[in-house]
Amino acid sequence: MTEEEKLIKKRADHQARKRANPERNRAEVSRWVRRYPLKKKARTLRNKMQRLGAPGTGITVEQLTLLFAEANGICAYCEKIVETLTLDHVHPIHHGGHNSIDNVKLCCQPCNSSKGTKILYKEWIPPKERKV
Ligand SMILES: [Zn+2]
Predict the structure, then answer these.
(1) What pTM, to 2 d.p., does this model score?
(2) In the structure, how many helices (H) and strands (E) does the chain have?
(3) How far, in Å, is the centroid of ligand 1 from the Cα of 93?
(4) Ligand 1 mean position to 123 CA, how many Å?
(5) Does 100 fall in a domain?
(6) Domain enclosing residue 124, as ranges
(7) In contact, 118 and 91? CB cutoff 8 Å
(8) Cβ distance 54 to 87 under 8 Å?
(9) How far is the CA of 108 from the centre of ligand 1 (A)?
(10) Ligand 1 centre and the CA of 14: distance in Å?
């Protein structure tokens, strides 16, 4: 058996084990997500960007880890400290923006929802920079 055949068999066995015991599989997936939240985030993002056909180099788990560490829970747009930061594509994918680390910022959910697919400074001004 070649290395490739061994890998294919290993994957098939793994799939069969998952099908045979779906409850156990769900519990294992759930534990993995709790243990590696950023890996889960990176995977979800990669799948979504693939589905959208987004250009760019993609974002690695290491890049995400560094980004979250640097943000330290502070929203890039309103500077509020929040429990959960979300990933925003500064130049929206919707408008041809790239899915690369230099095109993302971490922000709070309200800022992310408010910005949506608007272009930064052209269609949307971050709350911290708005003149009252
Ligand atoms: Zn914010």
Answers:
(1) 0.81
(2) 5, 2
(3) 20
(4) 16
(5) yes
(6) 54-129
(7) no
(8) no
(9) 4
(10) 42
Residue 15 within a domain = no
Q: Averaged in consecutive runs of 10 residues, what is the pLDDT profile of the chain (132 residues)?
A: 95 95 95 96 95 94 96 97 96 95 97 96 94 78
How far is residue 104's CA from residue 117's CA, in Å, rounded to a whole number? 13
pLDDT at 124: 96
* Interatomic CA distance for residues 81 and 108, integer angstroms: 8
The alpha carbon of 76 and the centre of ligand 1 are apart by a number of angstroms equal to 7
**Angle at Cα 31 formed by Cα 26 and Cα 34, nearest 5°?**
125
pLDDT at residue 131, rounded to an integer: 85
Strands 86-89 and 104-107: antiparallel
